[in-house]
Fold this sequence. Notes:
- By secondary structure, this protein is of the alpha/beta class.
- 37% of the residues lie in helices and 27% in strands.
- It has 11 helices and 21 strands.
- The strands form 6 sheets. Strands 18-17-14-19-20-21 form a 6-stranded mixed beta sheet, with helices on both faces.
- Strand 15 and strand 16 form a beta hairpin.
- Helix 5 packs parallel to helix 11 and helix 9 crosses helix 10.
Amino acid sequence: MISFRSLFVASRLWFSLIILVLLFVAAYAFPLLFPLVKVVFAVFMVLIGLDFWLLFFSKSQPAGLAFFARREVPERLSNGDENPLTIYLENRYSFRTDVEVVDEIPFQFQRRDVLFRARLNPRETQAIRYELRPTRRGEYNFGAVNVFVLSQLGLLKRRYQFEQGKMVAVYPSFLQMRQFELLAATNRLTEVGVKRIRRIGHSMEFEQVRPYSTGDDVRTINWKATSRRSDSQGASLMINAFQDERSQPVYCLIDKGRVMQSPFEGLTLLDYAINASLVLSNIALMKQDRAGVLTFSDHIGQLLPAVRRTGQMLKILELLYRQKTRFLESDYESLYASVRAHIRQRSLLLLFTNFETMSGMQRQLPYLRRLAKDHLLLVIFFENTELRALIDQPATDTEHIYMKTIGEKFSFEKRQIVKELGQYGIQTILTAPQNLTANTVNKYLELKSRGMI
């Protein structure tokens, strides 16, 4: 059964109707043109009928199957990354078609430009590939794929609607995690800003006694083992071999308070912290350490103990997926009490938060000092990139000079916070949001190389 709801007028038809109207108007002024106009009108109606027949009554395929389309979308999307999607088109008509594809993407993207055009020969298939960048975690619902088909006459359009409604969850940036994992496996982390860090000294974890090789540190020679081997098998130096200390607990403490709601390039600071925590946890597990997560705001959220076992990364991913900002001031006293109660072994604590002023940091300093007394604490907070751009601009008038002065004051306070925390042995990272992941991984590798964890 033909549904006229699927019939649309093409732009070429509107143009032709305008020409016909103008010809009829001209025929009133010049009556000799009227017979010619009637012939043109009759031919025009025949062409419309032919176009309608081609689109709806073509014998090439059974009714309703003359064109096919489907959307291929990943099972889950990666937050803050460009995620690939594909729309497959198949022309089952016996003639060439021009198509317009309108994909009903989730409303969260706030886009109305997902329109594609293609030309398909008879029995041809094509793939349209495009990308979507979500900026919020949660559930995204895709609608139908609408395809408007035109024949070579191009007077009418037939709409095919393929109901492919699907709910897709947007998770923390697992694509970024995989990128770092791949680069780490191939020793190419420098491509994403991770520095090569030379090991300072030796770790305290003894591995074995082995024969000396060219390039080994002579300070590791085991003279007792060398003398025993010299007596039994001839002269040969023996050295103590050490390995990286393993199974060190690494916890990401994620602040979900109002200070983490600030946006940057579509993502909140909380999302940047979550994405960096996911990457750092994966790197820690690759380095044979144990990874855990603790979230907090005005009260303690969720705690995932640091372990190194199969499925730990999946648990971390699911935990981070459910985190939301709470618009209240974070309670650092509860954070300290929870860490003291549940994290008994000395651990590396990476605290993702944001301090805008010195007074804001000093209110929490007593609790940070207590955390640093029992653990190696690394406080990670954010540089205001908009403020930096304002400071770097040359001043043009008095108002601009005033704004730059205020900006310099806030920027200076950020640097003072770093110095103040350093006086109490608290490690810090002050970073722009886009550099957060690389800088965090750099600091973690640096602390391991110095034997601090």
